[in-house]
Amino acid sequence: MSNPSDTGERLIAGKEPLDEDGLLIQTNVDEYYNRVPVTYGVEMQFLATVYPGRAPNPLPEQRPLPIYIFTNKDYNEVQRLTVRLLVVDVFRKAGLPAWTYQGPPKPTIEDVFEMDGPSQMVAGLPAYSQWTVAADENNIFRPGMLDKTPYAFIGIKVKSNKRSLAEPNHIDAIANICEDIGKKLLLRIPPKMTSLRVHVGENVRDDMSYELLPRFLRVFCTLWWFIEARMVALTHPSRHEHAECKSLRKSSRLAIFEDEELDQFIENNGMSEANYAYWNQQMHYILPTQDLTARELKEIECIWRSGEAKDLCQMMEVDTTKLEMGSVGYKVMKHEWGRGTVGFQGICEQAWFDNSIGHNDGHTGTIEFRSLQGTMDPVLISNWVAVVTRLYDFCRRGNTADIMAMISKSKGSHEEYSSFDLLRDLNLPEQAKFFEPLKNNYQNEEEPEFKVPPVPKKQSQADEPEEWPEEWPEDWPEDVPYIVMPDGDVRYPLQELDFLT
Prior knowledge:
alpha+beta
């Protein structure tokens, strides 16, 4: 393998982005990559703590305090109000454009009319300029569902705008938002139920070249096929076999093809021998053929024989079959294809199998890394972003001998070639140093983000008033995030936010 420092120099994204006209006349491939920096966006999931009881808060000294609600137990409404509160009170104060609209990235006039006021104010900005705050409706836990506490938990998702590695302080806004949200809401981030996803792409891209399946995507899928286990090993153990980030190597459509199906794809569905000649040469530049089994050679050949990006993206989807309640009251198996450790549905249109359509189907041109556990720790986020963006850029323009060496080493045992060796080969010594003690400290059993006492004893009927006051309690603490009153009004702090309701 060549000197890692040499490889690292080739992996540094350019600092002088060209406009689209400049890219059209650019003929030097290296110059193109030097002038097209890697971009990314992060998607954070967390739970906000809600205290639905009338009894005194069991953690009165905890700061920030949980969200309080009186008699209104509509947690979906609490989610929606919390989302809008974050947009107005956190992002606006931080000077960041944010909305609650979830896509597609370029809203129609009809979409804008249906938006809330704060979202309409930023709807005219360029695509991916806005941060998105949304309710995670799959994560609502009423008291007793998540743990033996009087608290409920509501899921929130925050997606950053497009960030560029060409900006020296590109991670700062993410770090500041994590801190601001942590000051506003009492958070809980269980790794089994939350994740941090990173979408990585290029500052400028040509849609047509992406549809025709560019070389870097073939290289990425080939390399990921062999290093996936070592990348996932950097994350919390609860994510290793998680349903939302299943292994592409074990569960993708390509992985579960029978040998006969692989032969059939190579013969009938792949490109012709004449068209494949060039890609066959490119494949063997990075493939240590002598180290691979016959099955692995066929799998990789399917990647390089794919004629269009949609064919490869669909092969990389995983089986997400699950039990759901049927119309007659019985649970039935619902067979679906979805995203695994990596999602490719932003690469091109029709990237979803069975004509499933996502919000960003083909719009983003990004690869989605999905295996990291939920976190609001800016240091962990920064280091994980460094890892996945470097891997992406390495597949764009890494030395072919280095890629071949990584694949060859990955064929050995984990003891021989660890996750940290992989990071060092990617010229990420600082990230290897960061993740090694973190991985060793991971616990299989998640720990609560805060300690809670036993469930308080229920008040007697004599102590409980017949009716709760409709007026705002004068003695209520001023630093409560907000309270949903029985009539549904939202007060924050001690003032009505009429435009939120």
